[in-house]
Design brief:
This protein is an alpha+beta fold and 656 residues long. The chain contains 18 helices and 23 strands. The radius of gyration is 53 Å and the shape is rod-shaped. 28% of the residues are buried.
């Protein structure tokens, strides 16, 4: 092992005789392989010993044994080769016992000296390495212990993050751990103020409280801010203090980014302001892991805070609304039930069990069992009626929102009664007008102009009479005053009869009628007269809004347990904004008011008759193309006339 390649080794020749020193220098060490130093006294040798790697010392007249003792007392460990002109076995044994590296007795050659020098230097180097091993092992053991202690801290912090949503507590543990695992002087978590583009202290350890409150570091003009810009950590180890800000000087500092996803939200800062300790690689790794944990804690806290805000807002809305709201899970257990729903259904405040155990209303239970979103009117009592909408929420369950429409129902009842009373009052004078008009025709000769006037009076009276009849029919259907005797009827026969009553109107406009009735359609349970009126009104609507030579198609078929009746025309069509209101009483689209007569009751009567038979009616239309009105009626096996609310989930499957 030769270390000369690394640096020029220095040989100290100790001898009081100049001639012998000169001979060694000129004959044994003529090259530049070694740097030669000379000493002629023991004191000079001791003084120069710290500058050499090995000593060549002549014994006599100087006492090499005394030289070794002086070096030992000075705690200087340098290899010594003893040279002597008159050696003895006794001297050699004594030399080796006290630690002299080698012993050469005259006569010896230059090669003998060089070999002894090489061997002594190599042995001394090996000895130094072996001597340093315990110290290195101890240092490595201390580093490993500190690293394991840091990992233990990380485990504890990870438990806190998963078990504790208290952000202050978790961040405090992070900065405490940062100081503990690195044995640093201080630590802090600094977060980004996006508005001012600065970093501020969110949590700290061993910081002055006022300094922690007031410190603001600009993002675009500071080392910590550079971490935010680049997303890369910075470790600075300096011998001289570095100024971070006024009164903030550090000797070593580490800045590690805190990130949530791709966004840098802050910096973990760890520094030494007093001690001269530098950060090693293990500590840098631990600080990076700590920063990751702090980022997770901040992310969890942010999400938790947002969820809490949204939950508080939802709770406030549910508490404040007068509309009953209820949410059940996929198993039918109540998840949410606001005070309004609790009052109506007498549900205990903290109840979260099955809804069927506390709700007795059959209509609500039907909605909770439905597989598709649907609406229904729920009568809680004779005076309280709610419009309920059930919405299916995937992976959650079902939500029911109910709106009190009792006052609207009462207004509708009053309006219906008023219309019925007015219609009854109008019938008597209207009958008199029509009677006198007829008498005038047969009272004697009248002029053609008078005949024209009388015909106009008669036609107008008949129109008013028809309108009154429609109003009374609608009023009776809605108030259940009309006799609605129901029986098993064949809808295809009813359709044929109704179509026969409008053949004259179709012929008058030269329209083409296409009929496709399924004679094998199942019977339904209903009122024949009302069903004829329903078909007739649909046909009259199609005839009225289909131009001359247009086409009207009527089909009737059976699908599963339902009868499907369709009336399709090639008329003017219905605008999309008008379609939701087409079955409302007295509604007439703006585009037809001037061109077509009518009161807007025909389709309203159709809707009422369909509802009476627990069915559904809807329209599909395109302006300029035409309209298709579809009626869906349950067959005898599906009708449930006695129930308040008819579950239409099965009917919805026809539409899907």
């Amino acid at each position: 092992m030769n270390t000369a390649a690394k640096h020029t080794q220095r040989i100290l020749i100790v001898d009081s005789l100049y001639e012998r020193r000169h001979r060694l220098v000129t004959q044994v060490f003529p090259s530049n392989a070694y740097a030669i130093i000379e000493a002629d006294t023991l004191s000079a040798a001791v003084a120069l010993s710290s500058t050499c790697d090995l000593m060549l010392a002549y014994h006599q007249p100087l006492d090499v044994m005394m030289l070794h003792g002086a070096l030992h007392n000075a705690n200087i460990n340098k290899p010594i080769i003893l040279l002597t002109e008159a050696g003895s076995e006794r001297l050699a044994v004594r030399a080796f016992r006290i630690g002299i590296k080698d012993y050469l007795s005259a006569p010896f050659t230059g090669d003998d000296v060089l070999t002894a020098v090489h061997d002594a230097l190599d042995q001394h180097l090996v000895g130094e390495i072996i001597a340093r091993i315990p110290e290195q092992l101890l240092s490595s053991n201390l580093e490993l212990t500190a690293y394991l202690r840091g990992l233990d801290s990380l485990v504890e912090i990870s438990k806190s993050i998963t078990a504790d949503l208290n952000l202050e507590e978790v961040l405090s543990q992070v900065v405490d751990a940062a100081v503990s695992v690195t044995r640093a002087d201080t630590a802090a978590i600094m977060l980004v103020d996006a508005v001012d583009q600065e970093l501020y202290v969110r949590a700290s350890r061993n910081w002055d409280a006022e300094m922690a409150r007031n410190l603001r570091l600009p993002i675009h003009n500071s080392a910590a801010g550079r971490v935010v810009d680049t997303g890369e950590p910075i470790f600075m180890n300096d011998d001289t203090p570095r100024k971070i800000k006024t009164d903030y000087l550090v000797k070593s500092v580490a800045y590690i980014p805190l990130r949530i996803g791709e966004q840098i939200i802050g910096v973990l800062s760890v520094d030494n302001r007093v001690s001269n300790r530098l950060f090693n690689s293990h500590e840098m790794k631990l600080l990076t892991l700590l920063a990751d944990f702090a980022s997770v804690a901040l992310g969890n806290a942010s999400q938790y805070f947002q969820i809490q805000q949204e939950r508080n807002m939802l709770d406030a809305i549910l508490e404040g609304t007068q509309n009953p709201v209820m949410v059940v899970d996929t198993s039918g257990n109540i998840l949410v039930c606001n005070p309004a729903a609790q009052r109506i259904f007498a549900i205990p405040g903290n109840y979260n069990g099955p809804a069927v155990e506390v709700i007795e209303h059959e209509g609500v239970l039907h909605l909770l069992d439905a597989e598709r979103t649907q609406r229904s009117e729920i009568a809680i009592s004779e005076t309280h009626v709610f419009n309920a909408q059930m919405t299916v929420i995937p992976q959650v369950g079902r939500a029911i929102i109910m709106q009190d429409i009792s006052h609207l129902k009462e207004l509708d009842r009053l309006k219906t009664n008023f219309v019925a009373n007015v219609s009854q009052d109008l019938r008597s004078p209207l009958t008199a007008i029509m009677g006198y008009a007829e008498l005038l025709t047969g009272a004697g000769s009248i002029t053609p102009q008078q005949k024209k006037f009388i015909d106009r009076i008669t036609l107008s009276a008949q129109s008013i009479s028809s309108l009154i009849t429609d109003l009374l029919d609608l009023s009776r259907i809605e108030t259940a005053e009309m006799e609605v005797t129901q029986e098993v009827v064949h809808i295809q026969a009813i359709a044929e009869y109704a179509l026969a009553t409008v053949e004259g109107q179709i012929s008058a406009k030269q329209q083409r009628l296409i009929v496709g009735l399924d004679n094998d359609a199942l019977p339904i349970f209903g009122n024949g007269q009302r069903l004829k009126q329903m078909v007739r009104n649909l046909m009259q609507n199609a005839i009225q809004f289909t131009p001359e030579e247009g086409i009207i198609t009527v089909t009737l078929r059976c699908e599963d347990d339902f009868i499907v009746l369709e009336v399709q025309d090639t008329g003017i069509g219905i605008a999309s904004q008008d379609q939701p209101h087409i079955f409302d009483k007295f509604f007439r689209a703006e585009s037809v008011r001037q061109q077509f007569e009518g009161a807007g009751l025909g389709l309203a009567i159709v809707k009422s008759i369909v509802d009476l038979h627990e069915g559904r009616v809807w329209v599909e239309s395109e302006v300029g193309i035409g309209s298709t009105f579809t009626v869906l009626l349950p067959t005898c096996g599906m009708s449930s006339h006695s129930k308040e609310v008819r579950g239409l989930t099965e009917a919805d499957s026809i539409l899907s």
